[in-house]
Amino acid sequence: MIKKKTENSLGFFNGINTFVGDSTILRGDFEVNGPLRIDGKFKGTIISNSMVYIGKKSISECVILAKSATIGGTIKGDIYAENSLIVLKSAEIIGNIYTTSINMDDGVVFDGKCQILTKDQIRELMDKIKKQIS
Questions:
Q1: Residue 25 belongs to domain spanning
Q2: Would you say residue 24 has pLDDT above 80?
Q3: What span, in angstroms and rounded, lies between the C-alpha atoms of 11 and 119?
Q4: How far is 94 from 111, CA to CA, in rounded Å?
Q5: 3-class DSSP state of 106
Q6: How far, in whole angstroms, is CA 14 from its chain's centroid?
Q7: Could you tell me if residue 81 is inside a domain?
């Protein structure tokens, strides 16, 4: 029996579409339809119409544009999350955050600014950043 991918209430699809393992070092640009998980080292740009998960041991120098994101590792770069951003206590973010909703655990290392925007504002900002990237 083939199961159809379904979107849950947070906008995440069941299962991971793209996975970068913990022993992987990757440079480049991702544009993915569906969830992305990075546990290795990554340098580049991520554009996702779904969920981006940065694992606890991940070290990334990147710009993230996603529907939603969960950060557990180290990010050097800006994060744009249209629906929500979850920052786990193991995270270190050196960069700016732009989102409509954020949940940040105690113990997070964060050096940057955080802006909570309306849906229209974040969409407009993300469209502008996508044009600059391409």
A1: 18-133
A2: no
A3: 14
A4: 5
A5: coil
A6: 17
A7: yes
Say yes or no to pLDDT of 91 above 60.
Answer: yes
**Longest pairwise C-alpha distance within the chain:** 48
Q: Report residue 122 as tokens.
A: 């974040």
- Judge if pTM exceeds 0.90: no
Number of domains forming the structure of the chain: 1
Main-chain dihedrals φ then ψ at residue 132, nearest 5 degrees: -65, -35
Domain assignment present for residue 4? The answer is no
Residue 121 covered by a domain: yes
d(CA 66, CA 50): 6
With vertex at residue 49, the alpha carbon angle to CA 45 and CA 51, rounded to the nearest 5 degrees, is: 85
**Is residue 35 in a domain?**
yes
| Contact status, residue 26 vs residue 42, Cβ threshold 8 Å | yes
Q: What is the pLDDT of residue 15?
A: 62
Task: Kindly state the helix (H) or strand (E) to which residue 127 belongs, with its residue range.
Answer: helix 119-133
Closest CA to 48 of 63, 35, 59: 35
Kindly tell me the sign of the dihedral angle through the C-alpha atoms of 79, 120, 105, 87: negative
